[in-house]
Protein 1
Amino acid sequence: MPASTATTGFSTRFGRKTGTGNTYAYFAEVSNINGIGMTREAIDASHLESPDGYNEFIAGMKTGKPVTITLNFVPAATSDVTDAFATGSGEFRILFPGGTVAFDFAGIVTEFALGDISNDKLTASLVMQPSGKPTLGLVAGG
């Protein structure tokens, strides 16, 4: 049996496109990225004569799942996360370790939240809802 080629998420980066071309500004101190994926509607096509009394479904529209990033929050008058929320939309990239494969999507920023303020590190989260077709593939440069 061949050795595993699995890897960790260490060195994955999250960025927002700046201007034209393939340039992204990467957020500092991202500690978690969650929710990457796609879903598809299942449209009920059942009728009174569906075989054996089972529901039938047809494939519907596809949707990118909301992506949540969590990061260490450094209080400042402006930051990447507050600026992204204020702007409201953008083109985003999750650049995987090695810098050659990315998950790219256009989306709207639907939520900005500070984590619990306690005797632990300060955190913040940002939620983006993809709009349109996200892509997972090779990139020209990171």
Protein 2
Amino acid sequence: MTGDHCNDLKEIRSMFQQGVQNKRELNIMIDLCKVSNCKKTIPYFAAATMRKSEFSVSPIEKLKNFNKGKKILETYIAKCPNDIEAKYIRWLTQTKAPRFLRYNQNTREDYQFIIENIAKSNVEKNYQKVILDHLQNLENE
């Protein structure tokens, strides 16, 4: 997952936006991220890893998966602090994460960063619209 060949990115984005409905779909997304040579799939892999907690029975396993994905995402953002999609994934995760996980400290700054920088980013215009629409819809909930 370290190269810049992003042939799988569009499919991974689509799976992410549609939301995985079961463990099988989630594993397909995880496997697709694992074999991708595109570093831009790392935040999606992190989100999918966190999402594994929803399909785990054991509370310990739930927390382990969530923290593993969180660490992957935070490490990626530390290395790529201007990555709009990574900030979007973190914002979305923190917005939706249960409060007791205490993973909600970057929502305002990520939201502001995305709004201020998305137009000049290298994210395709049609996906920029998807991101902005999603931000707007969740902010209005």
